[in-house]
Amino acid sequence: MINIGELSQLCDSLGCRITPECSLSEYVTFRFGGPCRALISVNSAHSACELIKYMKKNSIRYGVIGRGSNIIVSDEGFDGVILLLGSDFAGIEINGTTIRCDAGALLASACVHAQHSSLSGMENLFGIPGTVGGALYMNAGAYGSEMSDIVVSAEYIDEDCNICTIKKEDMQLSYRHSIFSDSSCVITSVTMALSEGNADEIKAAMNECMAKRSSKQPLEYPSAGSTFKRPQGSYASLLIEQCGLKGMTCGGAMVSEKHSGFVINKGYATCADVLELCDKVKDIVKEKTGYILELEPVILK
Known about the structure:
It is a single chain. By secondary structure, the chain is an alpha+beta fold. 28% of the residues lie in helices and 25% in strands. The protein has 7 helices and 18 strands. A hairpin with a 5-residue loop joins strand 11 (151-157) and strand 12 (163-167). The longest helix has 19 residues, at 271-289.
């Protein structure tokens, strides 16, 4: 049982905003999903730590989201509390060639800050629609670059509610995976090392990266980005296209005709539509090619 009154008092004491019975469709890029019992906008690592302590003490289910760009939310929603690491927790600090970002800072904003300071190393990550914390959680990457190329360390809340620091070499970073993917630890800040560069050249590279995204990806539709992980030895989009699945639909969900690696929301998709379509795609690809596709987004239910 969640005592919303008591939880609201805790949020007030921490300076955090709470929204009871909040629809999650507004907080994920797929733009569907049911409500959570309460959504709390976290404003600091200390606040996150105190809130998680409260959830654990009172046996309350909780989840953590940032931009919601790699999440599929159940139509029934989430029977618990969602901690939002977003605009209230989005500080960015630059010291020499080092950039430190709160977990809720947008990755794109960090790229822009780096460019303004003539720091190179994040250009290919520009346009990835997520937070810095979320990007490290899944070791996000694009066009040959990954977070693992630049991250130095991170601050996180461990499973005993201690605020800890971890170095890159201990993060177990691999394709779309980090040590955080296998635990309930919560990333609160990320520190990255960049190199000195030319601001104009960096901006040109960022613009080129964004132009590639716009021309090849269905950015005009809600989605969770790349829907399937890259299978070893091939590419999900190539396999899906070879199987003739571009344009395949289930309800309001469709395999993008622009980029077959994206399942998109045509405007009225439900979680059930998306998962049914993904299952069909996986079954057909396995039958015709032998490859087993794995979902990239996290399912929140």
